[in-house]
Structure formats: structure tokens, C-alpha cells
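pinning this so it doesn't scroll away 📌
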Amino acid sequence: MSFFKRLSRTRTDSYVEDYGDNKYRDEKYEARPTSSRRTNSQPTTPATALAPTEPDSKDMYSRQQGPQEAYGATRGLPNGVNGSTGHNALPPMNPVPMAPIKAEPMPDLLTRAFNEAVRPYSDKIEQLESQIADLQSYVEQMEQQRAEVHSWIDKRGLRPDVPPSIAKVMDSTTPDSANTLNAQLDRKITIVNFDLHRLQDDLNDSISASHFASAMSKFLPDITRLSSLPTGPRYAFDLILKLGGNLNSHGGLDTGDASDLAARRDFYGKLDQAMEEVVRRRFQENEEWAVQREIKRIEKTAAYLRNFGVEPYFPGTLDLMRRELEYRGQPAGTPPRYQ
């Protein structure tokens, strides 16, 4: 019991001494030793306590003074960036060069205003171009249909019977139209002549020359049309002579009927007028033509008809052909007499 009383009194006195002596407290904390292993025999002063001391070689936990890195130096990241290699480090990747972005120019207000003003007209032009394309397609379709119709007409030999407007188109668009028209006209003249002779035989009586001439005269407009085509005058010349020959083969010359003879003269006069125009066009084509032989051919028929009192026979045509022969015998540069 007395032991605890002494111990408590001793501790009480020590506390009073620690807190009561401020000088001792300041020296205790200011002169704090730098190491717990340093002996207490060497007194320390505040100047020596703050000065840096070299580490003891025997200190177990001595610190190594390593080189300090500069401020802002790049440190390796734990994920492997900037060259560090960690467990989860990503492989180094080369940066993909990006295409340079071209700066768009500022919009031109004048150009924009012009485009806005022209836009209605541009739309109208596009609409008209579309309509033109449609019409062109329609025209091509119509031309194809027209060609098919013309082919159908020619297959049936109806070219001489078509209206003048269609005939003009067919003659200008169909290749070798003169040869085609000549073949159809020749065939048609032959059929009509055969039908007239058969009718005469069925009636057991001759058909008057005026009726026969009237049937043959209907071919003169088509022959004139034929003579206006290229190479057409050559075919027209032969067809006109064929019309005259058909009337001659009709007979009735020996009857001496005045009306019949007058009808023949009138018909031969029409043929002569049509033949003169054909001969002029044929000479203008400068084709190789045996004119002298054709003259003799006509003169032979004229001499035969003269025996029955039918004359003249192609008088204008013969005169024109003779003058052309005379012109060919003259020096070059002299115009033909029939012009």
C-alpha cells in the first residue's frame, strides 16, 4: 500500500516538472536527435540539429540518394504506353495519317443568285428535250410503219394507183423507185390491153378506137411521173411506144371510119406531146442512147400507118431527135436547138 503511494507521488512530481519547465520542453523538441541509434552523449544544438548529416554506414535502413527526375519528364504508364512494357501493355501502333480536309470556299452570292434565276429555264429546257426525244422515237416508229406500207403496196403492184401525195413520198424514199414503177406500169398496161382484147372477143364486135385510146390515155400521168425520176426517161420512152403499139394492134384500120381515124390521130398527138418531154429529159441525163435506131423504129411504124391514112405519127419527137443528132455533130459549147 505504501508502494503505490510512493509511485503515484513520483509520477505526479515528474508531470509537474515537465509542464512547469518550458525551457526544458523547448530544448527537448528543438534538439531532437536525427537517429534513434545516435548516442545521447554528444550534445546537439539547434544549428547542428537542422544541418544535414551523412547517413551512418551501419544503419540498417539507410536511404539512397538517387538522381532526381526533371519536372515534367514523361513517366511510363503501367498499361504499356510510351514504350513501357507491362503485363497488359498494348503493342505500339503507328499513327494513321489522316487526309487533309480541304476547306470549302465561301459561297458566291452572285453565282447562287444566277443559278436560282436560271433554274426555271433549265427545267423548261430539260422538259423540252424529253419531249423531243419522245417525238423522235414516235417519228422513227412512223417511218418504220411507212416503209412497211410501201412494201405492201409494191408487192401488190399498186404503186401506179396510189394518190399523188403518197406517190411522191414513195418515189423519193424508195430505192430504185424508177425500176419498180416501170415494172408495175408495164404489167398494168399489159393486163388492161389483154382485158380489152378479151372483151372484144366476148362481144364478137370490135371496140371503137376512141374507147381503146381512152383506156390507154389513163397511163400517161403515171408515165410522166416515171420520167421525172432518175433513170426514168429511158423506161418512159419505151412505155409510150408500147401504148401506141397497143392501139395499132387493136385493128380497125381497114374500115376507113373517119371518127375512128380522128380518134387515132388525137391519141397519137397526146403521145407525141408526152414523148417530147421524155426525150428532153433523156438527153439531159447524157446516157448512152442509140438515137438513130429509135428514129428508124418510129419512122417504120409511121410508114405503116400512112398506108391507112393515119398521119402524122410522133412528128415532134422525130424532129427533136434529129436536131439532137445535128447538135452532137457540132463543136462543143453550142447549146441544143430544142432549148
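📌 and the second one:
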Amino acid sequence: MHENMFHTVQFLFLSFVHLCYCDTPQSPSTTPMDQIPMLPKIDIPELNNQQPKQPEVDLKAGQYYQGDWSPIVYTAPATLGATDDWDMEGGIGKLRLKLEKTLNLAQTLANTLQDHIALVSAREQVLKDVISNGRHGVTTVKVSTMLSPPREYTVRDGAWARCHGDIQAPVRGHSRSLFNELFSTPKCIGKEVATKRDPCSFNSIIKYETVPTYRGSEYSEDDILCLKPSFNSSLEQYLSVSKKTVDETCSNGQVRSLEENLHECGLRSMTEYTFYPDRSAAATNLPLEYCTEPDGSCKLVVAWHLSNATIENFEFLRNEPQFQQYFIKAATFI
């Protein structure tokens, strides 16, 4: 039995040697292609017949991604829109129309607001002009600067009068039968003298930088101011102009250099107007909704900060006690 097993193993060994050495080609480069082992083909009907997986759709982005690359423009199926024409009849077209409608509505609203702002600004401009000139009533004026005590005036139809004393406000609580000149208008308790407009009371400014008249060792332009009683919503400026331009453009204003104004009024000045409208028909047509004081008067505060570095204007159509109290005092610490 052992002998038979020995012969069997010997036969298998010799056969293996014959296959490895006798049947092997002499040169590997001449191996036929059909002798190179190939991977067997896997034939699974379930996989070969499977439909390709639908790509993930991102409706918000308007496109989809096949795998993790290659963005492709997405065309929505008919089930998502009324018709196959998605851009015109589907959600995108409806969204565009809705946005256009919203934009048109916003534009209409913006135009309405601009018209309303222009109307309010015009009414405020009329009231400010009436207050500062004492038309259709009487205006009391208090002018404060950093260089001198406050000065008080009364203004009637553009005519200024200096009150050397105290101004008494109208007395409230009188019936219409007793409503006369004595109680309806403010009075100067003291001496009242007709005068010109206070030199430190102005409502708008034109600023000039003028070229020097004579040559010097260094070139420097002078800062000239046109101080006007009228109101303006913006600061007008003229750069590198002649003195002739100042004379031609500063109408109804006082020409003064910045240095002269600092010497006359200091760094800051403030004008406080209090307007008491009369009971005439013209006064009732004024925008008196701003006259919110308990005595029926209108307040207007105009303040200026003028220096070589900056020009600042503060304007209020109401009473601002905190600002009025600290504006001049705070300038002493600058």
C-alpha cells in the first residue's frame, strides 16, 4: 500500500516537472495573446438590465449634479410646470413676473415718498422763512455766542429791534374778548431800540477760498464767508476764485472772512427763534402743525460751528433744551 502511494506521488511530480520545463515557451515576449489569463466576465442580469439611477435634483439651485461633478442645466419635467416650456409658463416665469410687479410697486412707493418729502420740505421752508422774519406774527430772537452774553430781539415783518431788558411772553388763559395786542404778542420790558440784524445770526453760508491779491513768499488762499439770512439745504462752496466772484454771488448776505467771524462771534453761535402767529387769515394758512409749544408758539433753533477745519450746521424746528443748554458751553472745552 505504501509502495503504491509512493509511485502515485512520483507520477504526479514528474508530470508537474514536464509541464513547467518542457511545455514552457523559450521567450516570454513571444507569448500569444490568447494564452494571457483574462478576468472572467461577470454576467449578472439584475445589474446589466438595471436602469441608471436618477440624479439628485436641486430645484432651488435650478440645476442638478450627476455624481459629484459636472453641473448640468436642469430642465424641469412637465409635472412641475403647466407646460413643457418651464422658463415662460412654469415657476421661473411666474417668479419673474412676481418680482417685476414687486419692483414696480416699490418704484411707485419711492416716487410717492419723494413727492411727500418734497412737499414737507417746502412747507418747512415756508414756515422757517416766516419765523425768521416775523411775518404774520411776532418773533422773539435770542442770539448766543462764546464771546458775549446772549442778546434778545423782537422781529416784526423783517424789522429787528434790540431789547435792552427782558422779553415777556404772551399771557395765556384770556378769553377771545380780552384777546388784544397787550396779551397776544410778546413785550420788551425795558428799552427797545430798532437795529439791524444781529451780526452773529445767519441761517445759511456760502464758503469761498479766494486766490491772494498780491504775491507772497508762500501761496495761501483766504477763507471768505457769505453769511445769509435765507435758508439753504446744503453748503455752497467756491474754490480758488477771485474776490470779484464773491461780490457777484453773495447777494443779500454779509461778506466776512473766517478770521473776522471768529473774532466777532467765536467758534460757535446759536440763534433761537420763538414765533407767535397772529389770528389773521394768512397766518391760519401756515403749516402751524409745528407750533407745538404750550402757548401755541413755534420754535426754530439754528446753530453753527465754524473753524478752519470744519463747518457744521444744526437746525431744529422744535424746542431742544439739552442742545440749547450745552452747545455754547461745550465749546469752551474745545
